[in-house]
Amino acid sequence: MGEAVIRNIRRAGGLIEDLLLTGYLNDLGYRLVAANDEPGARFQFFLINDPAINAFALPGGFIGVHYGLLRAARSESELAAVLAHEIAHVTQRHHARAATGRSGNIPVVAAVLAAMILGASTDGSAGDLAQAALASAAARNAQSQLDAIRGNEAEADRVGIALLAHAGFEPLAMADFFDQLARQTRLYGPQAPEFLRTHPVTENRIADARARARGLPRRPPRPESAFHHMRARLRVLTAEDKRTVRDAFRANLAQGRYADRAAERYGYALALLETGDAAAAAAQLAPLLRQDPDRIAYQALQGRLARTRGRMQEALALYREALAVTPDNAVLTYGYAEALLAAGRPEQAAALLTAYLRRPGRAPAFYRLLARVETRRGRTTEAHEAMAEYYYQTGLTHQALDQLQVARREGTLDFYQASRIEARIRAWREELAQQAAAESDH
């Protein structure tokens, strides 16, 4: 169900599909997961394209964070506190408890949950299926599951605070963040953060969180440069006017208004590139690379700058050397594959992408890039298969089936290709049939 919800959110354009930001969120989340007493559960953390301050957990270990929460957090420990709380909902099996004794059509309930997350109304902005389902028993089922999960807030606080401390974060950060949001509630009333409507905060809850945190071991503060770099990147990517945010970075650097100077300069370099000034961006990046040459955010920007300026051999060398130090990194792998394709080396790009896609949790963009690579190689069956996977991952199942139907008509399929394609066609048709049946019932 969690995977189906993600596909619905992605179809509605509700995710920020930036590999660096998503990678940071997953690295931070897994630092907390590793501190759990029962490690081994799989999690996937993703960023919702919404300025609201909110976060949520889905069945299967899928944890979403609205980008407004990343902007609102004042420290990495505060962001980690929210992730720890949501991780606790999963590890304490709150979803499983909520679902006990209930049943539902998974594609329909997933569409409803996606609509709720995206704040969809009956205008169908999250898809026709969600609109139909919102008036059905499936909507009541989904809402009751969410309500039951929210009833476990105290347990999620208790377990989450322990996770924070064990992972080396500031255990008081959860109470501090809740207190900050509670003050906003008193100031803004109905305009208070969405997080408080889904995670009601009372003075007793804040006091309990503080008392628990004070009884846990404290560690020296951790470096938070990655947190500030990702906040700077987010400011650029979500800005409606890139020139305005570029000028804001420049002014902040001139006047010393920043929490982390290197992060502010990185944001400025990125904003310069986004506004078409690659030379100025390279000048801002150069001292950052001298200071911290192994930071992946800098390496990725350096590779992108080399490609933008037409220096393909330089770009290829940069990506190759960086991947030798950090193998299988998503950002560097994608950039290197793009550079290989642009340099007329599709065979190498295909080998790189095929190896990478054997890993779990692949971003759909890798399948779309693989489709381009296979097309360049003249391997049309593989190109259609890759594009079908991309469409399915983005919630476009009909288009995915169309791609497989074309691939199936290819006369050069071997037994394994034909079997794989037929299995996918059957599974996706069954899913669409469930959706159609639900629509006809309501």
Strands, helices and their partners?
Blueprint: H1 2-11, H2 19-33, E1 44-48, E2 55-58, E3 62-66, H3 67-72, H4 76-91, H5 94-99, H6 106-118, H7 128-133, H8 137-150, H9 153-166, H10 173-188, H11 194-198, H12 203-214, H13 225-237, H14 242-255, H15 261-274, H16 278-291, H17 296-308, H18 312-325, H19 330-342, H20 346-356, H21 364-377, H22 380-393, H23 397-408, H24 415-441
Parallel strand pairs: 1-3
Antiparallel strand pairs: 2-3
Strand content: under 5%
Give me the strand/helix succession.
HHEEEHHHHHHHHHHHHHHHHHHHHHH
Q: Roughly what is the average pLDDT, rounded to an integer?
A: 87
Structural class: mainly alpha
**CA-based shape:** globular
Rounded Rg: 23 Å
The helix fraction, in percent, is: 55-70%
Largest sheet, spatial ordering of strands: 1-3-2
- Main β-sheet, in a few words? 3 strands, mixed
Amino-to-carboxy terminus distance: 20 Å
Q: What are the defining features of this structure?
A:
single chain, 442 residues, mainly alpha, 3-stranded mixed β-sheet, 24 helices
Describe this structure in words.
Residues 120-127 have low confidence and may be disordered. This protein has helices spanning 2-11, 19-33, 67-72, 76-91, 94-99, 106-118, 128-133, 137-150, 153-166, 173-188, 194-198, 203-214, 225-237, 242-255, 261-274, 278-291, 296-308, 312-325, 330-342, 346-356, 364-377, 380-393, 397-408, 415-441, and strands spanning 44-48, 55-58, 62-66. It is globular, with a radius of gyration of 23 Å. Helix 16 runs antiparallel to helix 17 (296-308) and helix 17 runs antiparallel to helix 18 (312-325). A hairpin with a 3-residue loop joins strand 2 (55-58) and strand 3 (62-66). The chain is built from 24 helices and 3 strands. It is mainly alpha-helical and 442 residues long.
